[in-house]
Structure formats: structure tokens, C-alpha cells
Protein 1
Amino acid sequence: MADLEGIKTAIIKGKRKEITGLVQAALDENVDPHTLINDYMIEAMKEVGANFEAKKIFVPEMMIAARTMQTGLELIKPLIAQDAEASKKAGTVVIGTVFGDLHDIGKNLVVLMLESSGFEVHNIGENVPPEQFVEKARELKADVVGMSSLLTTGDPHVKATIEAMKSSDLADRVKVICGGAAVTKKYAVDVCGADGYARDAVDGVKVVQQVLGLG
């Protein structure tokens, strides 16, 4: 019998070498792919997020868990690709690090966490100028634009990017959130006019869900 709880445990403990066999065994026994994702894989990542918030684990462990889940998802994706409704995403997010900043670890962790929570995520890289955020959001039909800044010198670029989004034709339908070591909630929301602020990757998922009315 398929070890469904084992799938959950493998993700929580970051056992990437084990996840492929566990997921494949479940699929071989015709376990519904959506049950695997929703009831076990996403639930596992929720527990990982809770452990991170409680400081029981730290960024490296959380990244390993998210990558373990991604490995398992690679087996499942082909099975649900033809099912338009079943493969419907929670939303589309465009994310990048603002102009003048080349840091990517925190941003990449947010990408993993969002993907693990059912979002379609487009990582547009680092050192991204404001106009590129707008162009990519338009091109990819984004619901949310997320920007990261780890340097205080990035503050003007955070503000310029938010202003570019809010003055564009996307202003009424694309939400903008900010995060990163150099950004505070007061600056992002009160000064720059962002729709949300995330203090870390786990909070980032919650904030994206909130601004989209998903939780």
C-alpha cells in the first residue's frame, strides 16, 4: 500500500532521495494526483512553514523541504497537465530583485514556497528596472508583482517600481508586494503604496494569498 504519510514526512524532513519512489508508488496504485498534492504535499509545506515561524528550523532546511516537494511534483505534473480545471493555479506571480541589487537567495526561497502553495511563479531575476517589472507583469498576465530588496540603497528603486506599477494600465488589477532585509512595512505600504509587505518567505505566501482574497 502507498505510504502517503511517508510522502508528507519526506518533504518535512527534506528527504529528496526518497520522495520520487514514494510518489511513484502512490501513482502506480492510482492515488489521485490532486489528493497527493493538496492533502499531503501542501500540508507538509504548511508544517514546514509553521516550524520555520517557530524557529524550529531555518532557511536551509526550508529550502531543502521545498525542493523535495518540487522533485515530487515533477512526477505529478504530466498527469494533470491535460486537466485544465485541475491544473488551475491559485494565481500568477512575477517576482524579481529591484534595480541595483544582485541578491537572490531570499527571493528564490519565496519562489519555491509560492510554487509549493499552488502559484504559477515567474522569476525575472535580479537588478530588474521598474519598467521591466511592468512589462513582464503585462506579458505574463500577473495577478501579483513581488519585489525584493536587501540593500538600503535599493529603497528609491522599490519606490520607483511601485510608482511605475501604480501609474500603469495594470494598477487596477495587479497587486504589488515587497520584502527583503532593507524594506520595512511602514516604508513599503505607507510611504510607497504597496499592497502588502512580507517579512520572510512563509509570510510572503500568506500575504500573496491575502491580497488575492484567498485566505
Protein 2
Amino acid sequence: MRDDAKLFARIAPLFDVGLLSDAQVLIAGCGSGGSQVALQLAMAGIRRFALFDNDVLEAENVIRHACGRRYIGQRKVDALADVLLDRNPAIEIDRHDTDIMDCGDLPEHVKRSSVVVLATDNEPTRFRLNQLCVDTHTAFVVGRVFTRGIGGEVFNYRPGESGCLACLEGLLERTQYRDGIREIDLVSEEEREKMYGLEIAEIKDSPGLNVDISFITAFHTRFILDAIARTIPERPKHLLPIEENYVVWGNRPVHPFNKHFQLQRITLTPQEGCLICGNGKLK
């Protein structure tokens, strides 16, 4: 029996990992969320990764990251690659220590991917990848933890079927789930400067405890597996299709949520007039 076959022997009767082994997964952002998603995918049998990040693992990252203290000071793509290979030495990893906004060959990498994992912590990178995925008809799944870990969201763009990230943002501006979910909405300018030393436009997501993040990364990973299964002739057994393409999860009863473990499911269709994927698309 091959070593990688032994690794998956306990779950093989429940989940045909071999059907997913040829998928190419692009991980955009190797921070707390992206690293945990990548590790979960590796443990589900994904063997081909392209990792994109241009940051170094700092001591303050470790408490929420898949990589531990011995990786402090290393590039995140290298640290995460080492963790993934420790779980499965058969994994193939392309490492890209680069800024997504400045990566000239990013469109080619997106086009070659079965699915793109959006795990960055800022809107410009998300919307660049959204545009590239729409242009190349590539599925993506984006996950975001709301401020202080009160909850989060996961959205799966399905080419030719669903709306894109721009459609989603336009829809959510008209719902209660965009009210008070960002750090920028909850603190004064003085507090922001004290906490981050950044201008308002630069404020990034502010996740909470690792357990709060883990709920969202679990949804994120499950949607990614579903996206991959939609690209192959035969779905893995027991991996039933997910009907909805967007979920909002509340960890605890803090506005806009009113109870622990609150789940909202939405099926987002292309929105009329969307400038990215709809009939209002920019020429």
C-alpha cells in the first residue's frame, strides 16, 4: 500500500479522496483563515496547491495560525507548505511570495485552477480575484470572519450559475448583515489609530479567537470541496451538492445576530446591472 493510501485508509470507505487528487487549488492568502483551510483540504485528499502571500509569520499570528512557533520569521508560503507536506509528502506545492495586486501572471494561475480560495484580508485583492475569476470562468470561494469573531460569511462563485462578489456586496448592502460587522464600524478614529496605526481605508478584517475562525473555515472548506466536485465527472460518495452558494454564520448573540450559532442561507443569482458579471458589465 502506498504511503498516501495509508494516510487516508480510515476515511476512504466514507469519502473517495482519489477523485479530488487532480484538482488544482489556488490559495490566495496564507494567514489564519487560509492556512487552516489549506490544511483541511490537504487532509481531505487535495494534493496540488498554489500558495500566494507576501507576508512573514509573526509571533502574534501563531495563536490563530496553522503554523506554530518554530515557523516565526519564515515566509508564510514556506511555513504553510512545510505543514502541508508534513501531513502528506505527496502534495505538490507552488509557492508565490508576492503581492496579489502586483502579480502580473496571476490571470494565468487563476485560469489553471479548479477553484480559487479567497482568504485575503482586504477588499482590493478580493475584487481583483473576483474580476479574474469572472473573466476566466473559474469558481472561487471567499470566507470572511466578522469583527471580533462574532460570526462570518462564506460565498461560492459558480461560473454561469451564480452572481459574483460584486453582486453579493450589492445585495448585502440592503440586508441587516452589513450593519456593524466590520471593525471600522465599531471604533472611533482615535481607537483605530491606537490599535492599528493605519489610515481608515487600510483597516483590514479583525478576526477573533481561533475557535471563532474555525467555524468559518469549516464552512469555507466544505464549499471548496463542493466547488471541486462540480468540475469532475464523478462526485465523491457522500459529498452531496450544496444548493445555496452563500451562508452567514453567527457565533454568538451580538448584533446583527440574535442567538448563538445562527445560520442564514442564500442562493445568489446574477444581479441585474452588475458591472462585473451582469448585463451592465463594463466593456
